[in-house]
């Protein structure tokens, strides 16, 4: 037996590895890739601890425990909060390229304020979604120089393409950087206070191949027996033999049970195991076992994955009753602390269906939506009908989930089960029966989406039965399915617009009553949009202001965004001041941490800039045609596709417009979106006309005019007047001449307004005092042309140009000598751009 004082938990970082870690501070992304047990986490923690001592670096550590994106995202939010950064708290997990880009923008903006920031993501291999790796690479390509990503993984996760694209921003540490060579192994053994002969050292190097975990376990065995394990020892057998088997049975069971947790505190361990000596056990374990660590907060413990694997193997040897006991305790702990996904997992292993339904009811379908539908269906199919009937509120939540997942047969099957539950439940009061039946009506109303009359029947029925708000609908959630327009959602049939407006007015108060005001203001903004479509701008503006007042402070952001969409379109037609500039409103929405809201607002910007011909200012989501990367809800997608079609039209991509329109029209027809279809038909006729397909364009124009005339809808033609002006000069049998006259008159006014707006928005507001000629000269000055060159370009004398320039300086009140004046003028223009 060795006589030296043994300290196997000593940290050893070789000089070679220290040198490999040095470039981390100069790299945007450091990828550390090696199998389990090579000391990846230890090396990074050692490096970060030294940074923390020597600088004011901000350290953010994120651990991954499963492939569930929602659980991962919660870990990210907790890690940032622990570091004192709470700006991610209200953000949803990004699920598409647009939301990922949005998140990158926020991270860059917020982290740029830090002196130096290191974000360490451990066990990245557990997150099997390829989108996560792509997101990290894209972020590494954009983050400011003060931010450094460090990612540890067992598997290579960066593609060859990204390795080339990142270039010097990427630093890689591989298995050979972490593996101990003969000299390093000898130094580590001395650090641990252990002595080996040359032959033993050679045997250990050969059997372990420099693998830290194997070396550590060999030394643990050597410290107990004085001999190194045999060559045929399995690493897990070695671990169990060294770390678990020597422990008393109760301690071994403690480790087995707590190995089920990703992380845990003393309080959680006491609850799970019902032991009072948890503090002493954990103190002993962290002192004697390098595979049990206490995290930086001083309260949370974590097992190494090797420890977790061996603990779980030991857990499976416990008798069924003990396993059931621990799963039940885990479920209860997670349920109590609102970790409903974890609670569902624990109860599911125990097949405690009553507890599962209780958690579903508490969650109200929010976190449940992050699970795969087939997982939920599998549990539902195994759950006894008798147990399901005991939880009618959970059935309602599951009905709503099935609707969202488009599993209507299962939704209707659950409805029948709910009816049976209500009939057979002996303890339900009449009031609660009414609430359940009413909420069932509310959920069924979604099956009648955008048929206001039929939806209203369900809402009225629900309103009469219910005495409390619904639990399956959050009042602060979106109401418009991602659409920027209520009218586009609910104008179902040509000739029925007035009827639809009246039905909306009668329907919505009943809906508000049972949903705590969800979507409040919808009927008002729909009325405002209808006035606008008919060219009644003053009435539209009055109704718009009513809608803004109605939603003030009530959290109905989706309705506010519909107001913004109308306000921007209306501002082109009349002299009104919008409540915010595009930049101000977008910044406000960014602070709300909701990607969906920003996407809707980008659609408003895209439409405005497309119809006014300012294509260079269209947001990238639409201007660069990234819409296919966004996961829009099905009812909102036709509106987004129609707006992208308008962008293609503005960009002169007429063949694209024709090629895409058929599928958008099919979507619109399936959802009975008459107004969306009208917009697309007009885009289609404009594209055909531009490509010389006159007959097709005239046929589409006749159909569109006939469709729109029944409700007096003018604006889709007016907003596209520059494309169809010549076509409108023809004769259209059966179309009211006054209707055509109004379109033409308003179209000409529209063109003049757009020209004026483009001129105003191309320069800072102070430039409004300049004449057209003065603006023209200012543009040439911005191109760094001399007075002589400007004179030649405009066929003016050099003296006249000089007079114009002096007038420009005078009107803009620019002081100083000639060179200073010109420099200041150019800075004013660049500031605008």
TrEMBL record:
Pfam families, sorted: GerE, WHD_MalT
Which part of the chain is the HTH luxR-type domain? Answer: 763-824
The domain of life for this entry's organism is Bacteria
**Sorted UniProt keywords:** DNA-binding, Transcription, Transcription regulation
SMART domains of this UniProt entry? HTH_LUXR
| InterPro entries registered for this protein in UniProt | P-loop_NTPase, Sig_transdc_resp-reg_C-effctor, Tscrpt_reg_LuxR_C, WH-like_DNA-bd_sf, WHD_MalT
Q: What is this protein called?
A: LuxR family transcriptional regulator
């Amino acid at each position: 037996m060795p006589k030296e004082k043994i300290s196997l938990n000593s940290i050893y970082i070789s000089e070679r590895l220290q040198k490999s870690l040095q470039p981390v501070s100069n790299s945007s992304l450091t990828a550390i890739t090696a199998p389990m047990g090579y000391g990846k986490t230890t090396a990074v923690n050692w490096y970060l601890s030294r940074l923390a001592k020597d600088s004011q670096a901000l350290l953010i550590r994120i651990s991954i425990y499963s492939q569930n994106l929602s659980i991962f995202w919660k870990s990210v939010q907790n890690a940032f909060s622990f570091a004192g950064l709470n700006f991610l708290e209200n953000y949803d997990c990004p699920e598409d390229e647009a939301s990922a880009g949005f998140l990158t923008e926020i991270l860059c903006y917020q982290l740029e304020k830090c002196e130096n920031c290191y974000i360490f993501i451990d066990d990245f291999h557990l997150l099997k979604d390829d989108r996560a790796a792509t997101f990290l690479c894209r972020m590494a390509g954009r983050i400011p120089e003060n931010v450094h990503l460090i990612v540890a993984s067992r598997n290579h996760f960066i593609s060859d393409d990204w390795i080339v694209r990142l270039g010097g921003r990427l630093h890689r540490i591989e298995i050979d950087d972490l593996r101990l060579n003969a000299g390093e192994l000898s130094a580590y053994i001395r650090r641990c206070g252990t002595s080996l002969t040359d032959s033993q050292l050679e045997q250990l190097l050969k059997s372990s191949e420099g693998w830290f975990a194997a070396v550590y376990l060999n030394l643990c065995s050597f410290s107990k027996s004085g001999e190194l394990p045999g060559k045929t020892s399995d690493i897990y057998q070695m671990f169990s033999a060294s770390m678990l088997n020597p422990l008393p049975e109760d301690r071994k069971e403690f480790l087995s049970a707590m190995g089920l947790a990703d992380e845990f505190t003393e309080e959680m361990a006491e609850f799970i195991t019902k032991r009072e000596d948890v503090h002493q056990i954990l103190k002993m374990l962290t002192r004697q076992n390098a595979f049990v660590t206490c995290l930086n907060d001083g309260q949370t413990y974590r097992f190494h994955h090797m420890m977790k694997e061996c603990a779980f193997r030991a857990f499976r040897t416990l008798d069924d009753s003990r396993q059931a006991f621990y799963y039940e305790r885990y479920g209860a702990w997670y349920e109590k602390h609102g970790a409903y996904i974890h609670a569902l997992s624990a109860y599911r292993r125990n097949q405690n269906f009553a507890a599962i339904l209780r958690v579903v009811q508490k969650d109200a379908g929010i976190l449940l939506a992050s699970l795969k539908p087939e997982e939920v269906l599998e549990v539902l199919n195994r759950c006894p009908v008798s147990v399901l009937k005991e939880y009618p509120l959970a059935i309602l939540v599951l009905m709503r989930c099935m609707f969202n997942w488009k599993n209507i047969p299962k939704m209707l099957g659950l409805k029948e089960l709910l009816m049976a539950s209500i009939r057979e439940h002996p303890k339900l009061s009449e009031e609660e029966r009414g609430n359940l039946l009413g909420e069932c009506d509310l959920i069924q109303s979604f099956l009648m989406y955008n048929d206001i009359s039929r939806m209203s029947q369900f809402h009225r029925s629900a309103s009469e039965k219910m005495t409390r708000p619904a639990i399956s609908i959050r009042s602060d959630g979106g109401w418009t399915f991602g659409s920027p327009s209520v009218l586009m959602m609910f104008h179902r049939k040509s000739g029925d617009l007035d009827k639809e407006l009246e039905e909306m007015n009668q329907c919505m108060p009943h809906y508000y009553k049972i949903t705590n005001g969800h979507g409040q203001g919808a009927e008002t903004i729909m009325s405002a949009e209808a006035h606008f479509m008919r060219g009644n701008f003053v009435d539209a503006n009055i109704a718009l202001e009513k809608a803004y007042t109605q939603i003030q402070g009530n959290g109905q952001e989706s309705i506010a965004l519909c107001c913004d969409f109308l306000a921007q379109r209306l501002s082109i037609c009349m002299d009104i001041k919008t409540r915010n500039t595009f930049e101000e409103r977008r910044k406000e929405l960014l602070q709300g941490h909701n990607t969906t809201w920003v996407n809707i607002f980008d659609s408003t910007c895209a439409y405005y800039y497309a119809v006014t011909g300012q294509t260079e200012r269209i947001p990238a989501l639409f201007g660069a045609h990234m819409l296919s990367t966004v996961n829009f809800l099905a009812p909102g997608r036709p509106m987004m596709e129609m707006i992208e079609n308008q962008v293609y039209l503005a960009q002169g991509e007429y063949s694209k417009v024709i090629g895409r329109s058929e599928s958008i029209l099919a979507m619109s027809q399936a959802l009975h979106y008459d107004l969306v279809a009208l917009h697309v038909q007009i885009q289609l006729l404009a594209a055909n006309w531009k490509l010389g397909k006159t007959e097709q364009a005239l046929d589409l124009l006749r159909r569109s005019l006939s469709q729109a005339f029944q409700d007096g809808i003018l604006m889709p033609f007016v907003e596209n007047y520059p494309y169809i002006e010549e076509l409108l000069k023809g004769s259209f049998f059966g179309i009211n001449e006054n209707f055509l006259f109004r379109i033409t008159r308003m179209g000409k006014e529209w063109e003049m307004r757009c020209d004026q707006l483009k001129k105003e928005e191309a320069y800072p507001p102070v430039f409004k005092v300049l004449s057209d000629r003065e603006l023209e000269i200012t543009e040439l000055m911005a191109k760094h042309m001399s007075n002589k060159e400007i004179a030649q370009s405009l066929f003016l004398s050099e003296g006249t140009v000089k007079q114009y320039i002096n007038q420009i300086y005078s009107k803009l009140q620019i002081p100083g000598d000639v060179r200073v004046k010109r420099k200041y003028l150019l800075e004013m223009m660049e500031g605008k751009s």
